[in-house]
Design goal:
Strand order of the largest sheet of chain A: 6-7-8-3-9-10-12-11
Order of helices and strands of chain B: EEEHEEHEHHHEHEHEEHHHEEHH
Helix content of chain B: 25-40%
Helix content of chain A: 25-40%
Radius of gyration of chain A: 21 Å
Number of strands of chain B: 12
Number of strands of chain A: 12
Number of helices of chain B: 12
Distance between the termini of chain B: 65 Å
Radius of gyration of chain B: 23 Å
Largest sheet of chain A: 8 strands, mixed
Largest interface: A-B, 57 and 59 residues
Structural class of chain B: alpha/beta
Strand order of the largest sheet of chain B: 6-7-8-3-9-10-12-11
Oligomer: heterodimer
Number of helices of chain A: 11
Chain lengths: ~325, ~375
Amino acid sequence: MALLEVRDLSVVFQRRGEEPFTAVDGVSFDVEPGQTVGLVGESGCGKSVTSLAIMGLLPKRGAKITGSVKYDGTDLLKLSDKEMRDRRGRDLGMVFQDPLSSLNPVVPIGLQVTEVLERHRGLARKEAMIEAKDLLDKVGIPDPNRRLKEYPHQLSGGMRQRALIAIALACRPKLLIADEPTTALDVTIQAQILTLMKELVQDLGTALVMITHDLGVVAGLCDEVNVLYGGKVVEKAMRHKLFAEPRHPYTHGLLASIPRLDAPRGEKLTPIKGSVADNIPWTSACAFAPRCPNALDVCRAETPAEEDQLGRLLRCHNPVVPGTPAAEEVPV
Amino acid sequence: MSETLVSVQDMKVHFPIKRGVFFDRTVGYVYAVDGVDLEIKRGETYGLVGESGCGKSTLGRAMLRLNEPTAGKMTFDGQDFSTLKGEELRKMRRRIQMVFQDPLSSLDPRQSVESILVEGLRAHDLDEGKEATAKRLRELLAAVGLPSSALRKYPHEFSGGQRQRIGIARALALNPDLIVADEPVSALDVSVQAQVVNLLEELQEKFGLTYLVIAHDLAVVKHISDRVGVMYLGGLVEEATADDLYAEPLHPYTRALLSAIPVPDPQVEDRRERILLAGDLPSPANPPNGCRFHTRCPWRQATKCDTDRPVLREIKPGHKVACHYAEQIQSGEIQAHEVKPILVEEGDGLSPDVPLVGPASVTEALNP
């Protein structure tokens, strides 16, 4: 049994007087200990809402969550607020995108780390401070004794992100969810943070759910990749398989539209036409159909079913034939 | 007509750090750009890369004199741009246009697209009657791939990619020679990024434009630029053609930067060797002596690096690098070694021994 089993997770936002909006639509995936699973997609594809739903951080009113999120056999969605509070920070850790807005600006870093230790492990403040120092040291913050007394604004972006990771790891959670942990950072700092996360997964056997829009990050870090589009997983495969042979036109298009550092110059990029604003609802069609170079009539008439193809899950009526070059030139 | 369109000599932009309520005293400087020389040829795309805080945007803005440079000279098409004043400067600015990073905040939300595009034309007396202008606007929109119905709409009605197209159309409207694009695609989703990158390339072919593209994403810069300059803490550390730079990076910083960029291919990622830089970028208010990079450099040597600031020198034709030991590093004579991260002060980077006299707040000033 996997450590985390997400089954048919759906999140519908309902505001009074407005049409309900389905942000996440039947997402399922498993995470094993020591494994890294990636959720990839562009803005608005539902990747962050998925993570908030798993952590129970969505508002009770307005967000309707269905499906199940089994952690070690217990369904997190059925737990009470109090039970969930006991688990968050202890069993489940989370690292957010923007470390400055997720750290408390008026509390020193040290107290923010010890808070978790005192709450969940019942340590006294003094013991907790010693432990906090070790944690900061482990995530590569130089001079941790001094940093413990400092406030978030006194740390650089990379250091803040490290502090946030230290807080998330304080109780050695078995599951860590990282929501765009490096998006706000520079590439050289990103490389430091990604290396750190890779080491943590290897050393502590933490299960990691990595949420990102950057396919480069996924290629280096994740074992299994879920590509999300319009709230549904459109393609799921192990990373080598996915990158070598993308079958869904969206994955295929996404890979063709990124300039690669190692590609010869002068090669034209092949963008995906339109934008997410062109999506049509999944209810009786494929949401990607208006932007899809492979779209057939059936794509606008029927929701494609999820098909299992030898270790790859694919949701498409007309998948890309392996080896096809990027779609024809799209007029700008 | 000479081949060089823009030439920048020893450009410096220093921002004063002020303290005090009633009397502004300058207590230090942020050395945002500290001595940059570069040349941009007619019709080429020059890419400027570097991490946040390296001064790349300030350099771009100083070239347009949106920030007055502290020192240095810029020559544009044979004319000295840095001494122009008033009306002459305004007229010259028609030929240098800018595309900004965030299309939503650089477009006035209360102006329709038509009004945004016509404004520049009017300011430079290029508005030749109703019909000619209407035709010109339709041409512009067609060039950037927007329908002509867009004219009556407002910026909020468009998606991010479309807004960036409006920003590009606004820059194109005045028939400029040079377009300075500051992070033109970094606010956009990847699938839309490619559309804008392709559009910029097409427009260059069509109108013979010269670009200065400022970005932090080396992959994007490499894709669209002919030549690339890498900046670190206010100075250029390496300059080469895009292919050379990638094939044979000579400066240790460029090497680290290239090795840090993830490539969307697991096989490449698995085989890659990362050069991890220790620590953070030092504060530009208190830059290290000697080579700016020596605090993080894995190839740092005992002599010269921490005392002499290296100048940009040409090692191979068209390939310039600012490193004392570039040849030895390239030949493998000097090997990389471990670097301990050094604490970097955040904030204004003033050393604690600078006495901060003067009232700390208005209340303190009023009730001494």
